[in-house]
Amino acid sequence: MKIANVVMAAIGVTGALLTGMVSCQSVAEEKAPPAKTAPEEEFVFVDTTAIPEGKYGDAVRYGRELMLNTAYYIGPEGKNGKYLGNKMNCTNCHQDAGTKPFSFNLIATHSNYPQYRAREGKVLTLAERVNNCVMRPHNGKPLPLDGREMAAFLSYFRWINSFAPKGHFAGEKSLSVELPDVAADPKKGDALYASHCARCHGNNGEGQMRFDNVTYTYPPLWGSSAYQPGSSMHRVIMQAKWLKANMPFDKATHDKPFLTDQEALDIAAFVNNDEIHTRPGVTKYDYPNKEEKAIDYDKAPFADTFSVAQHKFGPFKPIIEDWKQKGLKPSY
Fold first, then answer.
1. Cytochrome c domain location, by residue (predicted)?
2. For residue 318, what is the enclosing H or E element?
């Protein structure tokens, strides 16, 4: 991929934490830098040394800290509140505090909300979307909308959004995977997991707890401390896209993936195989309109006659073709 006019990044030193509540008015008073135009192939990197001084800057720094050390601040033993149901951090999925390309990148998030979300069947604010992550992957309870932590998250997202060009940029979305004519194979994924993933995430998907027992060095992938069903990572295609660009962390890059598309799908199928792996319980599932449901979301009812297993593992091409013939827009 040709990369034009790369915006260079510098990793900033984490500054002082937010010392008081940041009101919506104080955030609004800060003027974001003007948007920059750039060709679509440009990669955007965030210069954390440019975080401003003052109360707004303190909020941005705290928001970044929350992304990197979520469990420390608001986990089950959180210093500033106990909101999470597990000890994972936002940056486990949104790597580099949401700024790494092809890793559920969050740089454009602030300008993309409010937006309609098919999963909830309604328009969500960015604050509501933050709480979705707190409640699903983190298995927690929602943050107060007028609280210090929510103000910090929103301030951070607004600030990193100031680096985004007009239009799209490289790494904003996930890498694509070519869907095969066969289903993803959890048994093959089991062997691949043992070879490439277990050294960090454990033979039983338990992860590796950090020395202080506050959070994980490598997060759990299933079990009572992992993400819920309904989380984005619980969908096989969605997780495979993320794996292709990012894992193994010391071998893969977005331009030189270590896993093939099929291997990424097989590992995702194994990790998300609910017949052998338990997860935190969920009493309510999503997508109230079945015609808007992601094709790799495996909870009925469906807008087609394909089985739960095929929606879970594939093959996905027949589902996609069926939806297109019906005039529906398949998402995955």
1. 184-275
2. helix 317-325
